[in-house]
Each structure stands twice: as C-alpha cells, then as structure tokens.
Amino acid sequence: MHPPPNSGSGHHEIRKIFFDALRHVSEPRITGNFKTSYIMTAIQKNISDKIVAVLLPIIIAISFIACKKKNDTPAPDTSNLAIVDASVGGWQLDFRINGQKYNQQALRYDTILPYTSVTAGAQGFSLTAADNAFRVLISSPVNLRKDHYYTVFIGSLKELPYAPLFVITQEDLTPADDKAKVRLINVGADTQPVNLYVSGMDTPLFVQLPFREATLFKTIDAGDHYNFQIRESAQAAAIASINDVKLEKGKLYTIYVKGFKSDDTAAGKLKLGLISNK
Predict the structure, then answer these.
(1) In the chain, what is the straight-line distance between the N-terminal and C-terminal CA atoms, in Å?
(2) What is the helix (H) or strand (E) element at residue 198, kind and residue range?
(3) For 235, which DSSP code?
(4) What are phi and psi of 156, to 5 degrees?
(5) 243, 227 Cβ separation under 8 angstroms
(6) Is 64 helix (H, G, I), strand (E, B) or coil?
(7) Helices (H), ranges, 87-199
(8) Half-sphere exposure (CA, 13 Å, Cβ side) for 258?
(9) At residue 19, does pLDDT exceed 60?
(10) Confidence bin at 79 (pLDDT 50/70/90)
(11) What are 138-193's pLDDT values in tens digits?
(12) How far apart, in whole angstroms, are the C-alpha atoms of residue 5 and residue 247?
C-alpha cells in the first residue's frame, strides 16, 4: 500500500497551522504588556470615574445631613452666675465649676464678677487656692435652674487661717417699675443676727438675719441719699453702715455684711458692701 498522496505535506500543514495558532495566541503575551496595562488602566479609570460619579453625590448628601444634624443639636440650657469675694485673710482664690477654673484672675477681697452665662443643671462648685489647684478649700454640689440668676458670696470663718466659705443665693430679678428693690446677706462671721435699718425709718427693713443667710428682695422708694446701718438689736448701736447710697427706679441692689466685728484693721473690720444686681 502506498501512503496517501501528500500525506507528509498534510502533517506539515497541520503542524504549521498549530504553531501559527500558538504563535498568534502567544503574541499578546510576548508583545502585549503595554497594551494590556493600557487597556486595564483605561478600564479602571472608567470604573473609577463611574464610582466617583455615583458616590460623590452620596458623600455630599451625607456631609450635608451630618452638618444639619450638628447644627440642629440644641444648645445646652444655661443659667447666670455672679461672684462676690467678701473673704478676709489675704486669700487668693480660684472658683471652679466641675473642676474647671471660672475666673481669669485670682479672686481677692472685694472682687466682684458680674453675671455671666453658665451651663444649667447639676454642677460642682469649689474654691481652691490660686497657687495650688489641688488644694480644695470648700466644695458643694448645686443644681442651677434654667434661665435663673445666682450669686456666690465668698466669706470667711473667723478662726485662723480665716478659711473661705461660700453662700449661694438665687435671685428673682423682676424689677419694680417705679421703685427700687433691696436685699441683705450676712457673711460677717462673728456677728449676732443683724437688723438692717434705713435712715429716716424706725422699723428695720430686715430683722434678725443670721450668718450665712440672705433675705429676699424688698421694694423700697428710689432715692439719692440713703444711709443704711446694721444693729444686732433694736437698742444696740450700729456696728456697720454705708451712706449716701443712690437707689434708682427699676434696679435691684444687694447689701452684704463682710469682715469681722472683732477686727479693727482696715482689711478685716466689719463693713457693708453694695452691689447692683440689675
């Protein structure tokens, strides 16, 4: 038998076709690295552009919602606080709320800080030495009501080293249109309960106010030359006074007892102080 005609050439053609096909399949792997990278980069860029196009509005919307929520967060309730330092003994003090220093400069005798806004609710008040934040001299929990007014009066105990203390008052600052209002607070450590007398009046304005106590505001005629004095009884002599006081219509005033009856020094003797609350 003879082999089919051109059988050798047939196998050759098959091998040629096979290797040609293999060569064509292999070409991209040999010469196509740049092409493949370029194609893949183009695909990735196209996908990235589409992702950015989809996600960007979402991110902007989320940011807007977050900002809106932040702006919609209600501000905390606030109260109003004033401080009067009537302590003696040369103390330099810091007043703290929940451990945070409230005053910018050290508090000294006769320092008065007007009303400023503070966070309402449960708070911790304390006094520390100005040169040592860890030396807590007195502390007390308080609950400040929303939109109410408070004053911290700092006094001293008579015993050395005249340790500071504070008395916290809540004020109703509703004015009397055609009159003034006055109240009294006693932070004079060694007095008996005191009566406050007004010049020209036989009856005391306030009666038997003990140490560390305060009265409510009382209405009084406005005037330019009031003289006030405190006595420990109706028959006793005045132990402190403040003269030529002007009381204006619609305003409120606090008269406070400070110092020691038994001290005759300029810095420590018993005196009356006056502040305008509003």
Answers:
(1) 132
(2) strand 194-198
(3) S
(4) -140, 145
(5) yes
(6) helix
(7) none
(8) 29
(9) no
(10) very high
(11) 999 999 999 999 999 999 998 878 899 999 999 999 999 899 999 999 999 999 99
(12) 137
